[in-house]
């Protein structure tokens, strides 16, 4: 027989019941993230964007003829790099902070850097390694050994192959070589297509839809680059400069490979229905292939390019051409080391981390998880400050120095682009005075202040106009010692 409850037990149970009645339990409600605004980037596009700097290697018969565009009739015997070392190429890239490298497997001259079974106009007929060599294989193996991803460029225009100009025959040939490259050399993260073609070239219709479908079938995580994407778009010039307004969104139906509006490519479209971020391609030298008479751009030029590409919501694709020996020239290696060192010097210290921080409002209240402190953590995508209501008149986030004034000449702002690109217009104030303004932000916006160094105790970033509630994932206040008040970068 069970024992009856004691009087003390009854008292405890009664007291607990009364407390529950007086102080009912509160269900903890976590504020969800705001709705995304379409279109959104894919996983592959997000990973690509975070690379910021990638590298191109233009190498082939042009390296030995001092040309930019080969004729397609060069004798394969001229291709004979005496010291080709793909490991040196990859080491150069790694030292520059690069995690993706792209090789011209075939340029417009049609000469293939791998032993394609669909043509004899390749390394098979060169004296390099007695015709047994494979540049693409050495490139891929060297990259894999260092944990670097690879991309390939297979020129649609082929000045050697006699099938060029015959739509069906040449498209079959091109697809066959595309399958070779994407089947034989492992994981490829970017494939490069363009519409470059001489004015006297035969009329030719490329079956781009067929090509793209084949690429996706063979490589599931690849980004396809062209004027019209569908993964990454050209920025519209070969200077490495994006527009001061730079949307990742654009309408692909308005784009045509080889015949797109450069200004539209350069700026994108806030009403764009496709997420197609811009890639800025430029060479470290004047030409894309190595020429003895050329030298690398100076540090000032490279930093200018960096601010106008990476600092304008783009990825910078920097070409570094191997020389006749098959090596990256010492002068290029040295300049790239200086470039990487300069970037690290500028952005390694964030003065904003020493500040107190507040904002106009916060989604979900004080404990909602979207506070302004999120802009100072190391997650530049998925933690962010979100204001309470998009209908507010003034969205702002402010940093205040705790003891001595802040001295800086670069402001970095980043959006949480995983939920869409939103901001249309913004301003920056120091001690209540406007020092800079801009339009889009995207993954990264770098303001290199035109008047040079500023000093103040408070820095406020105002969002003036946005497609939806603005989401800022990261903010930095930096000092660039290479930037002078007169608007010139020190060398």
CATH class of the largest domain: Alpha Beta
CATH topology of the largest domain: TIM Barrel
Biggest sheet strand order reads 1-2-3-4-5-6-9-10
Shape: globular
Q: Which spans of ≥5 residues are poorly predicted at pLDDT below 50?
A: 1-6, 8-19, 487-491
Classified in CATH, the superfamily of the largest domain is Glycosidases
Largest sheet: 8 strands, parallel, barrel
Indicate the mean pLDDT: 93
Number of strands: 20
Q: Please indicate the percent range of residues in DSSP E strands (runs of 2 or more).
A: 15-25%
Overall tally of structural domains: 2
**What value does the Rg take, in angstroms?**
28 Å
The CATH architecture category of the largest domain equals Alpha-Beta Barrel
- Listing every helix as H and every strand as E from the N terminus to the C terminus, the arrangement reads HHEHHEHEHEHEEEHEEHEHEEEEEEEEEE
Helix-residue proportion: 10-25%
Q: Structural class, from secondary structure content?
A: alpha/beta
Total helical segments: 10
Give the end-to-end Cα distance, rounded to a whole number of Å: 94 Å
């Amino acid at each position: 027989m069970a024992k009856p409850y004691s009087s003390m037990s009854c008292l405890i149970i009664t007291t607990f019941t009364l407390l529950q009645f007086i102080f009912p339990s509160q269900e903890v409600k976590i504020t969800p993230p705001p709705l995304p605004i379409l279109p959104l980037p894919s996983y592959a596009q997000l990973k690509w964007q975070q690379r910021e700097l990638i590298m191109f290697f233009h190498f082939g018969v042009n390296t030995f003829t001092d040309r930019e565009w080969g004729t397609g009739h060069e004798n394969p015997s001229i291709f004979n790099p005496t010291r080709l070392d793909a490991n040196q190429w990859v080491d150069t890239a790694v030292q520059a902070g690069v995690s993706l490298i792209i090789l011209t497997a075939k340029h417009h001259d049609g000469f293939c850097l791998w032993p394609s079974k669909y043509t004899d106009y390749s390394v098979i007929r060169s004296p390099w390694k007695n015709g047994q060599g494979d540049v693409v294989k050495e490139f891929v193996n060297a990259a894999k050994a260092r944990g670097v991803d690879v991309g390939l460029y297979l020129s649609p225009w082929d000045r050697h192959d006699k099938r060029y100009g015959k739509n069906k025959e040449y498209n079959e040939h091109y697809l066959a070589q595309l399958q070779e490259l994407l089947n034989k050399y492992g994981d490829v993260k970017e494939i490069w297509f363009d519409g470059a073609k001489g004015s006297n070239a035969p009329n030719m219709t490329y079956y781009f839809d067929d090509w793209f479908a084949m690429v996706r079938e063979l490589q599931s995580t690849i980004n396809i680059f062209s004027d019209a994407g569908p993964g990454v778009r050209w920025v519209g010039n070969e200077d490495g400069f994006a527009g001061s307004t730079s949307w990742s969104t654009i309408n692909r139906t308005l784009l045509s490979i080889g015949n797109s509006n450069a200004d539209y490519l350069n700026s994108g479209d806030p009403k764009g229905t496709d997420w197609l971020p811009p890639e800025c391609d430029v060479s470290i030298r004047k030409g894309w292939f190595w020429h003895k008479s050329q030298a690398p751009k100076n540090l000032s030029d490279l930093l200018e390019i960096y601010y106008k590409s990476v600092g304008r919501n783009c990825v910078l694709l920097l070409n570094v051409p191997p020389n006749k020996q098959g090596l990256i020239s010492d002068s290029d290696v040295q300049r790239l080391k200086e470039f990487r060192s300069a970037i690290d010097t500028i952005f390694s210290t964030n003065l904003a981390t020493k500040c107190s921080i507040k904002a106009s409002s916060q989604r979900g209240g004080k404990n909602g998880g979207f506070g302004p402190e999120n802009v100072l953590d190391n997650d530049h995508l998925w933690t962010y400050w979100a204001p309470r209501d998009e209908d507010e008149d003034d969205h702002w986030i402010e940093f205040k120095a705790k003891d001595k004034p802040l001295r800086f000449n670069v402001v970095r702002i980043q959006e949480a682009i995983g939920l869409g690109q939103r901001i249309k217009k913004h301003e920056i104030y120091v001690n209540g005075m406007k020092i800079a303004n801009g339009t889009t932000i995207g993954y990264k916006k770098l303001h290199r202040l035109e008047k040079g160094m500023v000093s103040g105790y408070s820095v406020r970033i105002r969002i003036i106009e946005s497609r939806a509630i603005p989401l800022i994932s990261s903010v930095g206040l930096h000092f660039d010692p290479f930037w002078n008040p007169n608007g010139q970068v020190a060398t």
